[in-house]
Amino acid sequence: MKSDHRHELKTNELADWLGHFPQWAKENRTTLIGAAVVIVVAAAVYFWVFYQKRVVSTRTQVRLTGLVTQLPTQKGAIARSLSQGTDQSYVLLDVARDLQEFAQSATDDEMAALALIDRAEAIRAELHYRLGNVSNAELTKQTALAQASYQTALQRASEVPALAAKAQFGLGLCEEELGNFDKAREIYQAVTSNAEYEGTAATAEAAYRLETMADYKGSVVFKVAPEPQPQAAGPQASAPVIQIKPGDANASIVIPVPNDVGATPAAPAPAPETDVLPDATDAVEVLEVNVPASG
């Protein structure tokens, strides 16, 4: 009974409120209009920000793609110029600067980390593609810039295993290029032993470097080629002799073979005349034919 009574009261209150709603709305018309305007403006701003965020994100991705693909393109152009004796490795420093500016303005940590990793690669590649010699001071200074870029990328992409592993692997490459092979080995081992990096490309690269790093430790020294031996005058002076024996063991033909294939070979010595047939079985019977005189 009490529940029915309470339900009846609520129904009466709702009916009373609906009955007085027109009068209440008329009295609070200004407040209601203001609230409606605020709700509409808030919804419009929300959708505008959401739309702008998607547009800006798309534009940012397009820009990053252009910068990332520019790196291998420039490497190929520089390699072709080197074959013609022209050094254009400085172009990679321009690419590195553009990637740094992008990373500084990017709000997305993954995009910024990828740009920083490629920036470090461009800085290192400039040293490798440079036509002139690189001093130890330049190597140390420029590699330090690459290390700082890798380290920042590692911090910004710590939650992305693929990028974090790639950045850490890059730090190992820097140590290896500086000649710190023990430090590089420690970094490679840390990459390969990290369970979070399992399945990433950097893990496989680090494992390969651990297997082959010993091949890059020592300096490559080429053995001096021996001095060429002077040749005696004449094409037949030091030429080997080939003897070809005919059927008759008593006769031989000597053919000189010159050392210089471009020299005009000497004519072979004529075979000695002999009345002895090579073999009795090869003798040819001579038939004497009398030709009658004409007319």
Q: How is this structure best described in words?
A:
This protein is mainly alpha-helical and 295 residues long. Among the domains are: 94 residues; 55 residues. It has eight helices and two strands. A two-stranded antiparallel sheet has the order 1-2. Strand 1 and strand 2 form a beta hairpin. Helix 4 runs antiparallel to helix 5, helix 6 packs parallel to helix 8 and helix 7 packs antiparallel against helix 8. It is elongated. The termini are far apart.
Estimated radius of gyration: 45 Å
Order of helices and strands: HHHHHHHHEE
The class by helix and strand makeup works out as mainly alpha
Mean pLDDT reading: 75
Described by strand count, sense and barrel closure, the largest sheet is: 2 strands, antiparallel
- Runs with pLDDT <50, length 5+? 241-249, 251-255, 257-265, 273-295
- Using DSSP, what is the number of strands? 2
SS element count, helices: 8
Distance between the termini: 169 Å
% residues in beta strands: under 5%
Instruction: Walk across the major sheet and give the strand order.
Output: 1-2
Using the alpha-carbon principal axes, give the shape.
elongated
Give the fraction of residues assigned to helices.
55-70%
